[in-house]
Amino acid sequence: MIAILGLIVGVVLGLVLQPNVPLALVPYLPIAVVAALDAVFGGLRALLDGIFDDKVFVVSFFSNVVVAAAVVFLGDKLGVGGQLSTGVIVVLGIRIFSNVAAIRRHVFHA
Amino acid sequence: MSEPTTRARATGAPASYEQEYDTVDRVTMPLLQRITVQALDEDYAHAARRRQEQAGATGEVESPRSVSWWLWLGVTVVVGILLAVAGRQTSQAAVDNQSSRPALIARIDAERGALAETQERVGRFQAVINELQTESDRVAQDQVSTGEALRRLQARTGYVAVTGPGVRITVQDAQGVDPGDAIRDSDLALLVNGLWTAGAEAIAINNQRLTALTYIKNSSQAINVNSRPLVPPYVVEAIGDPRTLQARLLESPSGGRFEEFARALDWQVTRQNVDRLRLPQAPARMLRSAEKGLAGNEPRPDQEGGTT
């Protein structure tokens, strides 16, 4: 409930406030979002595994976002930004999938 | 989704990735499998194991940390904001792309039309330039030929200085001659006529060039040419073929008569072939009554009709 509530509040805040993203950061925003989703699902799975730690979660959340954006930024500077962002998306996507699968096992016991 | 706080189960710390797999397994494990196995951050397992060890050391069983509502709310809000902003950016970029495409196409079309128009104008101007170039060439040619004609005419009529081979004839009265027997205008006119007849192309007397308007006339003692009084001796210079000029002069009637006078009145006449004579140009005279005629090659209606 709280999660859904927080998500809705966040979306509404984002749409209402329309924070101005610096133009230089715009290409890294989708990567940052995917990294944040990965951290969230990871945290959820840890919670269901019973090993959740709020400090670890917060640190992993922000470090994931920053590192993913930094890797893509570096790739842009090296001229392989597209390929590197694809790699990051693939890795994070697989992690999200397997975490979601673990969560599903916990919730549905299947 | 169930309440996070109630889901915290007191279980033993699960084995971490490092515990579960030895180094060889980790090195040889396929990349995709490794990603799947490592899907959960190992830090959770580390933290859980540390907590368990602490609990074991102190002997008290510490329940796993519960999740505070505020943390959960804050994180989900942040995720929501991120999602909203990213979505808005993407849709905006799509809108920008879509709206800019037709505008660009329209601009391309417009510029293409303008380019075609400009090229057409360039072509037209090119044609005009070619026409004008032809005209200019023709005018330049006309100018050249007219200039040549003018120079020929000036040389022939005496209004430009000329050089060439010819004859210099110096005529002088006999010593102590009676003024009545002195050389007169008609005598010089005879000589000049004879030279013209003999084929002279340009004549000057005492550096006075003879033109179509020149007269030779006595006023009291002096002979005037081009309204300038001449001082004896009279030097008549004629440009022409030096091989034939003198002989033909003698053969001509007026030249013959001049010779007779010269012999009879005992004038001192010296004839001299000169390789290179330089005759000055005559002073230009304004024409007041005579008007410019039609151009040389054009037919003259008045003459064509008048002469039979």
Automatic annotation (TrEMBL), chain A:
Q: Where in the cell is it found?
A: Cell membrane
Query: How is it placed in the membrane, per its record?
Result: Multi-pass membrane protein
On whether Membrane is a keyword of this UniProt record, the answer is yes
Q: Which UniProt keywords apply?
A: Cell membrane, Membrane, Transmembrane, Transmembrane helix
TM segments? 24-44, 56-74, 80-98
Family membership, please give it.
Answer: Belongs to the sbp family.
Put simply, this protein is called Small basic family protein
From TrEMBL, chain B:
Q: Which Pfam families match?
A: DUF881
Cite the residue spans of the region called Disordered: 287-308
Q: Which residue ranges run through the membrane?
A: 69-87
Compositional bias per record (Basic and acidic residues), positions renumbered to this chain: 299-308
- Which keywords appear in this protein's UniProt record, sorted alphabetically? Membrane, Transmembrane, Transmembrane helix
Q: Which superkingdom does the taxonomy of this entry point to?
A: Bacteria
Q: Which InterPro entries match?
A: DUF881
Which family is this sequence assigned to? Belongs to the UPF0749 family.
Protein's name according to its UniProt entry: DUF881 domain-containing protein
Protein species of origin:
Nocardioides bigeumensis
